[in-house]
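README, section 4: Worked example with a bound small molecule

Sections 1 through 3 covered apo chains. Here we extend the same pipeline to holo records, where the ligand is supplied as SMILES alongside the sequence. The molecule in this example is pyridoxal-5'-phosphate. Nothing else about the input changes; the structure line simply encodes the ligand pose together with the chain.
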Amino acid sequence: MNAPVNLPGRFDSLPRFASALKAIESLKPAEPLYLVHPDKFSAAARQFLDGFPGDVLYAVKANPHPIALTNLWNAGIRHFDSASLGEIEAVKTLFPEAICHFMAPVRLPGQAKAAFEQHGVTDFVVDSDAELDKLLAEVGNPKKIRVFVRLVAQLGGALLEMSSKYGCRPEEAAKLMKRVQAAGAAPCLTFHVGSQCLSPFSYAQAIEIAQRAITLSGVNIAALDIGGGFPAAYSGQEPPPYHWYFDMIKEALTTLGRTDLNVMCEPGRALCAPGISLVTQVVMRRGDRLYLNDGIYGSFDEQRFISFDEDYPPSGITLDAKGKAKPLTGEKRPFRAYGPTCDSADVLPRPVMLPNGIANGDFVLFDAMGAYTVSSRSPFNGYYPDSWAIIG
Ligand SMILES: Cc1ncc(COP(=O)(O)O)c(C=O)c1O
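The generated complex, written as structure tokens:
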């Protein structure tokens, strides 16, 4: 592997601490604070690079921040599933030799052309005739590209489905695959089983759907991209280990007699969630309500869309009389956690379990906050979490 890349620009000078407690003790952060754990980024990447039987593309949308990209690059990730020209540019600016794949089935006009001509991107996705027409018109030389037809994989094993907006049925896919082949491009298939997919079996089912499209089309595909969806281990949840997913995928390919197939995956959440935790502060406690300095319009935006069953089990941390940071202990109880904006909707949808003694000025530490948090925070109401420190 190449030598580690230094964190670009202002990230060189981020404060570094041995632990979250030390960071809280030293910084007493009144603003939400992202704690970056390079060792966790590295461990997540290793599991995929060592265990998945093909290329591992990081889904940039999950966290396009240079600090996430750099940590994953340093951990050995070289392929990037980018969904827009902006994401491709963000990756290529940091790592000119990165291999970007343009895996959004509907692109803004001109973006495929720019990706192909300026950034050497040769993988694209379609799920309709119109988008295939547009792609072929923009990329003058179809022989140089691979076109992934996106299938619907609505299988119910995930907390956030990814098949109602994009994807087509095997019958429609078969027609598109034939068109791709006739145009001289390399036909391929892809699907997304849904995000935070807790059922490894969903991948086997989706691979069978892909096989159906292959049989119907009579087209020999050049690659199968099995998408993202691998779950992050959020505290309070225990998803199946990744090797169950990898074994299931390998078994499905063996059953279909397709162990020769060039496979790829596009994990987002699984690669970046564990690498960042978030320190928030209790601005005010009122009975069983906690008013925190971060909320739905900041790092918790995704909570509006994803239906976790479990309560949040973050850690409560207090500073003692000598200013030492200590975990709060004692019986836990559910709190309703509000964000800092004036909007009544700015409330976490799930109760937050914390020790009963938590008080104004205490801190609440949320683990596994690297995915769909930094990427979707907004400056609504004048709040924008953007303080950073490194742990380790
Ligand atoms: C095409 C595509 N690939 C990969 C991902 C990443 O999914 P996940 O974070 O569930 O791994 C997404 C998420 O939206 C996606 O749309």
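What to look for in the output: Residues 59, 61-62, 81, 103, 162, 192, 195, 227-230, 266-270 surround pyridoxal-5'-phosphate (CB under 6 Å). The chain has two domains: 26-32+275-391, 39-271.

Section 5 describes how to batch many such records.
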